[in-house]
Amino acid sequence: MHAALPQQAQQEGGSNDVPTQRTTRDLRRVDIHPDHWYPLAWSREVKRGKAHGVRFAGDPIVLVRTESGRVFALEDRCAHRQVPLHAGVVDGESIRCCYHGWTYDCTGRCTDVPYLGRERLPNGVRSYPCREEAGLIFVFPGDPLLAAEAKFPDLGSASDKAYKTRRFGREVKCHYTFMHENLMDMNHQFLHRRQMGSMRARSLGRRRGEDWVEVDYTFAREAGKQPIGEALVFGQKRGTRPDDGNKDVMTIRTAYPYQTLKICTKDETMVMDLWIAYVPLDREQRTNRTFGLLSIRRPKIGPLLDAAWPLLVWFTERIFKEDRWIVEREQEAHDRQGADHNHEVFPVINELRALLVERGAPPRDASAHAGPDSRRVHLIQPLTDLSAS
Amino acid sequence: MHAALPQQAQQEGGSNDVPTQRTTRDLRRVDIHPDHWYPLAWSREVKRGKAHGVRFAGDPIVLVRTESGRVFALEDRCAHRQVPLHAGVVDGESIRCCYHGWTYDCTGRCTDVPYLGRERLPNGVRSYPCREEAGLIFVFPGDPLLAAEAKFPDLGSASDKAYKTRRFGREVKCHYTFMHENLMDMNHQFLHRRQMGSMRARSLGRRRGEDWVEVDYTFAREAGKQPIGEALVFGQKRGTRPDDGNKDVMTIRTAYPYQTLKICTKDETMVMDLWIAYVPLDREQRTNRTFGLLSIRRPKIGPLLDAAWPLLVWFTERIFKEDRWIVEREQEAHDRQGADHNHEVFPVINELRALLVERGAPPRDASAHAGPDSRRVHLIQPLTDLSAS
Amino acid sequence: MHAALPQQAQQEGGSNDVPTQRTTRDLRRVDIHPDHWYPLAWSREVKRGKAHGVRFAGDPIVLVRTESGRVFALEDRCAHRQVPLHAGVVDGESIRCCYHGWTYDCTGRCTDVPYLGRERLPNGVRSYPCREEAGLIFVFPGDPLLAAEAKFPDLGSASDKAYKTRRFGREVKCHYTFMHENLMDMNHQFLHRRQMGSMRARSLGRRRGEDWVEVDYTFAREAGKQPIGEALVFGQKRGTRPDDGNKDVMTIRTAYPYQTLKICTKDETMVMDLWIAYVPLDREQRTNRTFGLLSIRRPKIGPLLDAAWPLLVWFTERIFKEDRWIVEREQEAHDRQGADHNHEVFPVINELRALLVERGAPPRDASAHAGPDSRRVHLIQPLTDLSAS
């Protein structure tokens, strides 16, 4: 029915001058790799003496801010009857389950069952390495032994006073990989034509490292005037005619699993610095929560940026809303088609796709996880063996 | 648990004087045959210079009315990233995808990718034969080579000035076959007792052709007075006592895949002429959109009908609402029971059921379509072979 | 990921002094046994000359109150086209389907098809034994031959004029077994700390019979004052200091499939008497409707209780709301984990769990029921045989 073949078949056909994808894995079924630090909440969401429930790839996690103000992270299920600990009561430096009062410390050890002797305390719950930086609470959801040596992300200019930072994000109903592709492919300016006017991106070339891909762009305005929101982002007015000498360079980089977008003027001043992470919420990783730090360099006359900030917020929200809408349509198409039918022609995006598969989690062992789905897969699995014999 | 056996078992028991159904196919799993012209939208829904998304049996289709006013139909998925073309921009006689601006003409050919040389244009998308008649946009969703010779439906009196036509329809959450059975079995007047009073239908006999079934009825009022809405439909007042000589004949015909209902007076004037089609929306065909053309013969004093029209609209809407409610309950019962447990005793309906199976699409080859479900079926399929060996 | 092992593994480890559970069945997949009398509606819900649709474990049942006032229960599906009979019309002592007017008497026999000769009447529908007591309509959903000898429940003090009875209940989205465990484990007073203050339950020991388990508790207030709602339940004010001589005894009993909670003062006056039943609604039994009769002994000065009744209603509703919330979280955890990971340490609850498995319905034969799910199971089933050969 569909004239365009699925990604893999096209690549093998070799008709396009793009990197060949050797993998047979569907990119939208590649789980994000858990052995990284992921932001799971804004600091302001976890109030002193309160617990807050979040999720990473289907795993419920409770973030607890104790009475002394420190934050710890545990599996968000009481060991007793599996109810969420985030509905519990913070008691000093511990969390007490709301149901029968079982109590856990920051290591997940059960330290009290009110109706049981202390000598018979049951097992506790899993704890997660946890760190608070730049207004974000990070958790290391993978192998805890790897947390100490794992690279903690550079959060860009969020703590540099020369910049003003907007913290933003939402739940988006798509696989995290669509987010990476959306931001990196600046040919999608057409989507934002109502906000940005008619802009043409020109790719200046790409670079690739072991765990990163990046690309540079310049932009030319094809028609219309520069919108004021965009001018704010750049801190100054730019030329509006094609090729009028605007030599700002935008660099977009996926340094797995994070993404950054920086804009530098020709005098190499960085006027905009975005750090962003996409955190899968459900086990199938078909939704993600986005955490973005958007830093804008303060102009000489400081208060100007503060005064114009609401307009910048409004402008970026509208752009983000359009992006959210389109990536959710991409996920919907994948759900309906049951496979990745994308027909990508832009080399940098094919490079990015390869990176996301390589650095992603290995395929799940069907028998290793607990859901009802996995058991069904397990029952069906032996078929292969049988038909081979 | 259920005293009544499923349809097939009963028929084989032979206890009822009805045509034996030889098929083992569940009627509610017979897909409508795609090699016919189906209305997918009202003309007024597709405005000049706009695109409009519709569905046929799970396939997304975009209807585009170009700047010159003609309508064409394409697969509603950009070949690039599968997002809906109906969110795009009509550009002269083409449609431009909203995301990266890929452009398609009326044949589905990709004629422009803004950031790619014209010599390297990728494959396009599927196009569908498309025709606009009587305020409806028809598409031929099956094999396009058959479209030219396929019979285009006779839309009844919709373009005859002696009649006034009401265009109506809604989404109904049931398999299209329930719609055919509902309209053809006039013994369901009991359902409309609050609108119609106590009416008794009498079947005068049925006829059957290769691709059609029809049945004639007369009606007798058992109690109560004729409602004014009904009088309007007939254009005059009729007797209200049983067998008082009302010899109007109602003929209901399924001429696959369409249905008509005509009422003729004893002097053979057709006072009412309904043409109706039921278009499956989802792949499982458990919802349909109904497109109806209800034509009423204008009385001698023309403006009378126009004046009374709102009342007729109200009356038919109430009838249709009751029908919609009951067929959705039928679909619900089928979903819960997982099979067709209907126990049909009315010969014309059994004839109709046989026709709908015979003319319907052949059973889907489980491995041929793309959804996640099909893959599961595919995995399970080999079992039969294995157990036979 | 989870530090606590599933129930069975822990028991086998034998580290806790609790009854060993020998079963391998997941308690949350044990269906309630159908060979008992279950309340399916309040009498007031089934008005004279009206029909009312209810469900038991996925089976639709219509309760019909005829013009003479008696109630009967039938399968809530017309034998003809499976639409719900509860949308029909009560006609004397019969129910007439709303669609084509097929008519059934209290035994489920089809007594009229308006357009068919009486000599050719089709099969009817299943009927259920039905009984009305204490404002509740009971149905026997299992083998009807066992209904006569099945023990009808003792509904406590609901018909004793020395008591005032509140009828309450709601739909709760969890397996019925969570309800039994919630009520029987009084260590969950911590959940109600905002309503009840800080109370400590002390278990006085448990008893077990063939089809019942019961446990006695006393309570001591650890902090705070007795709330007025609680005082009302007990009909008098009690001591508020720990061990101040309050010797009220609360006895909670699951007499399969019902549950009771009685509070007796030291002079053996029963001041509170609760009878409660949990009726599974869906086939998977993941929701239940609760029917409770809460009887409070009238104090010497009768009108006092009546005057305070709204406060008691408010108090019990708040308690019930908290319980409903937590058991729904338990069901949610089970759904996500796909198995019972409970780590129960309280002996009486392990006793109760064993009873609920023993008295529950035998495992469903996968091929015996009709839903689409069952067919899938049926297809997969042969695998076991194959791999053994």
UniProtKB/TrEMBL annotation, chains A, B, C:
Q: Which GO terms describe its molecular function?
A: 2 iron, 2 sulfur cluster binding; metal ion binding; oxidoreductase activity
Q: Which Pfam families match?
A: Rieske, VanA_C
Matching InterPro entries: Cholesterol_7-desaturase, Rieske_2Fe-2S, Rieske_2Fe-2S_sf, VanA_C_cat
Q: Which UniProt keywords apply?
A: 2Fe-2S, Iron, Iron-sulfur, Metal-binding, Oxidoreductase
Q: Which CDD domains match?
A: Rieske_RO_Alpha_N (cd03469)
Biased composition (Polar residues) is annotated at 7-22
Could you tell me which residues belong to the region Disordered? Answer: 1-26
**Sequence ranges assigned to domain Rieske in this UniProt record:** 37-139
Coiled coil region boundaries: none
The record's listing under SUPFAM superfamilies reads:
Bet v1-like, ISP domain
PANTHER family referenced in this protein's UniProt entry, alphabetically: 3-KETOSTEROID-9-ALPHA-MONOOXYGENASE, OXYGENASE COMPONENT, IRON-SULFUR DOMAIN CONTAINING PROTEIN
Record's protein name: Ferredoxin
Q: Which organism is it from?
A: Caballeronia glathei
